[in-house]
Amino acid sequence: MVDHxxxxxQELQKKSGNNVCADCGSEDPDWASYNLGxxxxxxxxxxxxxxxxxxxxVKHLELDRWEDSQVQRMKEVGNVAAKNKYEERVPPCYRRxxxxxxxxxxxxxxxxxxxxxxxxHPERQSYLSGxxxxxxxxxxxxxxxxxxxxxxxxxxxxxxxYHVKENKEPKGVLRLSELNVAFAPAxxxxxxxxxxxxxxxxxxxxxxxxxxxxxxINCWYMAIRCAKLHLLQVAFPSTPQSDLILRLPKDFARExxxxxxxPRSSDAHRRRWFTxxxxxxxxxxxxxxxxxxxxxxxxxxxxxxxIKVSNTGNGCKDxxxxxxxxxxxxxxxxxxTTHEDRxxxxxxxxxxxxxxxxxxxxxxxxxxxxxxxxxNSISIFSGR
Length: 384
Fold this sequence. Notes:
The chain is an alpha+beta fold.
């Protein structure tokens, strides 16, 4: 039999705002922080518990016993009121996590709200100044070892630099305006890790970094986003901020293994690691390669880009679910190992093809076309 307090909690949880997790938006949360007065999901409840009872006191809505005063607290506050308080001054560049986001992003969002109270006290937001210095562990370009490197972010110079030796010239200079940054815990094998992707000499370059402190890596991620937003606001002063935020760094639309064959019928199928970064479909020998083996620009359907499904045999015994990515210059023959994997790739590529081009997209397309033209000229000249 449901007791009186449990019934009250069930009614409260069904109210608008309370029916989703206060921190990640998961539906039908069955936990609560009764001192904060919020309804949360199991994943977020574990993070609340790790902060300590002096910050958040957690209970299950049905499995734990509730005191009258605790239920009254839930009634007085609730998710909407708590959101107005603890998220009052979230900066527009800050990435608010959703239920499927990496653990480090969700954990630091929760700690920023309730432990550090960053969004009640903006002076505690150390990532807004447009500059940051510190050390990150960086993976070597030629090997898999991670070395301690100093990174320097400078919004005024539009740069993110890294140094092998602190007082020497930088080893690498990355343009912020051309930089994408994504959390990459599964691929790198470290919870607090990121992948930096940028253009270097007409090609895409990947850098993999991590830090032992999750707060530090999260600060770097937000600092890059904030600096990029400021640069966009200068470059496009009449564009609404809401539109500029959509151009900030995003996680890759999809990554995974596919089989690829060349344009000739005699070409063999080879297993490649594919990454869809905005409109660039890159393929690599291994997931942590510094450079892709090739890059396919995915343009708009009005310019001749499309995707076709083939249900006939493709000659590849390891991947029977084939599809073709058609561009104005060439058709790329790819294959997935399962029907579900192919469906996932078809969905994200089709969405990309239907999305209108931005000025930045056109610049990237021109760069990749020049690169392909140059490579083809060299191949013809050398007789290859």
